[in-house]
Amino acid sequence: MITVKIYPKEGCHLCEEARRTFLAVQKDFLFKLEEVDITSDKVIYEEFKEKIPVIFIDQGFCLGPKTIHDIVINNSLFYGHIFPD
User: Is 2-82 CATH 3.40.30.10?
Assistant: First the structure.
């Protein structure tokens, strides 16, 4: 199963939008959604604090807020996992 991990920050409207987007997509695709406050992980926070929300897919794919729209429009995030070439 795919794991999507969101690293939001409290009070971040883009983080809330990302969460809502993944919850909506989860109705069509089977994946586990995890959320971890980015300020609780100093390494991740220092690396990505200007790119919140940070999203990791199966620990290997990283997204920022500009690509969340692609998930809804193209579902491109899941093609390699659910619809293999």
Answer: yes
Output 35-41 pairs: Cβ under 8 A, ≥24 positions apart. Answer: 35/5, 35/6, 35/7, 35/8, 36/5, 36/6, 36/7, 37/7, 37/8, 37/9, 37/10, 38/7, 38/8, 38/9, 39/9, 39/10, 41/7
Distance CA 66, CA 73 (A): 13
The list of the chain residues with pLDDT below 70 reads 59-85
Q: What is the pLDDT of residues 65-85, one digit of tens each?
A: 556 656 555 555 555 544 334
